[in-house]
Design a protein that fits this description.
The protein is of the alpha/beta class. It contains 19 helices and 16 strands. The protein is 43% helix and 16% strand. Helix 3 crosses helix 4, helix 6 runs parallel beside helix 7 and helix 16 packs across helix 18. The two termini are 39 Å apart. The mean pLDDT is 95.
């Protein structure tokens, strides 16, 4: 399998090199040159597979030539062995043809674990094979950081620096990062928003001399391996609900567009997905785009669902590329317009193509709290604010009542206890393996929104004397 950049000017790479590169050298994102597809008979044959077995089956075409079947199967088995639910990603029924898929049974209680537990092992395998070391620099709006740190802690070939917006993640999210004291891990609180953190990461990656000097790599969903691993749970839900013989739709709370793009990839691979619903909070750039065809940034407003407090949805570029027929030059121009002007107008044909699959709905904080209360009252389920937005958006978009609607529950309610308590009157407790989280010592550095200072920080950390 070969991979191409969405902007058309970077070298075509194998999976190994895409994994280590993260961002393409032309500033674009990597996608497979051609999409593997599964026939109806092949999807039926997935019934009864364990989650780890299904993961190996879905991802095998993407890593062809870089991992043997035995190596991939071993890595998926290791990655999902510690998840706390035997189904790994269980489905719960909320109503007639309405389901929620719980994606918070991994070590850091968020959907990011489903990709990053595997990606950490993929890094280990490839780096050992190549005899290389990397410095991972990533930005988080709350959940990617802890999942990436958990996946990469204590790995000899990896140093990892995670940026988060100071004061804009929940206390549980912050402590999940800052209480990991491994020597290869550093956390930086940046003065600004998640988009500022993400921009700093892109500045470092776009400085080719610095990138090569530090052997930079990425674990954000700009890295194709992240998206690849997320495709699996769409197939898991689909097969459990009768695919390929019945269609279904998915509702996804998202800010950076990586999670819902994985659903689109599953559709391209043969899963019978009817609609993909995007759930937004007040920072509703994606909803406004799907309503009118114009992507325009607005100020980021802090909300009860901070992981979605984003105005630059990095993974949207992958959908643009596919909807524009693989025209990298057109993507490059649109993204430059967006970067310079804070706005871009999608060609009508491409926007219409997107709207055949995607629709979007927004909920402000009061509507989010109301959704959490209503779900608790009607179903008994306690959901975090992000997951509640996903369920509520799915209910709004569930026009075909003969089709199952699956909402993705992306985080454990205990990650956002203040919002859950405000909505339901009950404060959710952390699971046993995190019960002492608030007693653990923290290590955290603070920094202004300054790319030069960040480069100095990363260089000093990567070149520190190794004990």
């Amino acid at each position: 399998m070969k991979y191409v950049s969405t902007r058309g000017k970077a070298p075509v790479l194998d999976f190994d090199d895409v994994l280590l590169a993260g961002l393409a050298r032309d500033g674009g994102l990597y996608l497979p040159q051609s999409w593997p597809t599964f026939s109806a008979a092949e999807i039926r044959a997935m019934r009864g597979l364990s989650y780890a077995e299904l993961a190996a089956r879905i991802m095998r075409p993407f890593v062809e030539g870089c991992f043997s079947d035995a190596e991939l199967s071993r890595l998926t088995a290791e990655s999902y062995s510690a998840f706390t639910h035997p189904a790994v990603a269980p489905l719960k029924q909320l109503g007639h043809n309405q389901w929620v898929m719980e994606l918070f049974h991994g070590p850091t209680l968020a959907f990011k674990d489903y990709a990053l537990q595997l990606v950490g092992r993929l890094f280990d395998h490839v780096l050992k094979k190549k005899g290389r070391k990397v410095t991972i620099v990533g930005a988080t709006s709350g959940d990617t950081g802890s999942a990436a740190i958990e996946a990469c802690r204590d790995r000899a070939a990896v140093d990892i620096v995670i940026l988060h917006p100071r004061g804009r993640v929940s206390e549980v999210q912050r402590r999940q990062m800052t209480t990991v004291l491994s020597s290869n891990v550093r956390n930086v609180a940046v003065d600004g928003t998640f988009d500022d953190c993400q921009d700093l990461v892109k500045v470092l990656f776009n400085d080719e001399a610095f990138r090569d000097e530090m052997n930079l790599s990425a674990v954000n969903s700009i890295n194709w391996a992240r998206v690849m691993a997320q495709i699996v749970y769409y197939f898991a839900a689909g097969v459990a609900l009768g695919a390929p013989d019945v269609p279904m739709s998915f509702s996804v709370p998202t800010g950076n567009f990586g999670n819902v793009f994985a659903g689109y990839a599953a559709k391209l691979m043969g899963l019978p997905i009817d609609r993909l619903i995007v759930g937004s909070n007040t920072n509703d750039i994606l909803t406004r785009f799907f309503e009118g065809g114009v992507m325009k940034t607005d100020g980021v407003v802090p909300t009860l669902s901070p992981s979605m407090d984003i105005q630059v949805s990095s993974n949207f570029e992958r959908l643009m590329y596919l909807s524009l027929g693989g025209d990298g030059a057109a993507v490059d121009k649109l993204m430059n317009d967006f970067r310079q002007n804070g706005a871009m107008v999608m060609p009508q044909g491409a926007w219409t193509t997107m709207r055949e699959v995607f629709e979007a709905y927004r909920l402000d904080d009061e509507e989010t709290l109301a959704a959490m209360r209503a779900l608790k009252r009607s179903t008994g389920e306690t959901l975090d604010p992000h997951s509640a937005i996903g369920v509520a958006a799915g209910l709004k978009g569930h026009s075909r009542k003969d089709t199952s609607m699956v909402a993705l529950a992306t985080a454990h309610p205990a990650k956002f206890p203040d919002a859950v308590e405000k909505a339901t009157g009950v404060r959710p407790g952390l699971p046993p393996h995190m019960a002492d989280l608030f007693q653990r010592p923290e290590r955290l550095d603070a920094m202004a929104n300054d790319a030069a200072a960040l480069k100095d920080y990363v260089r000093t950390f990567a070149n520190r004397p190794k004990v």
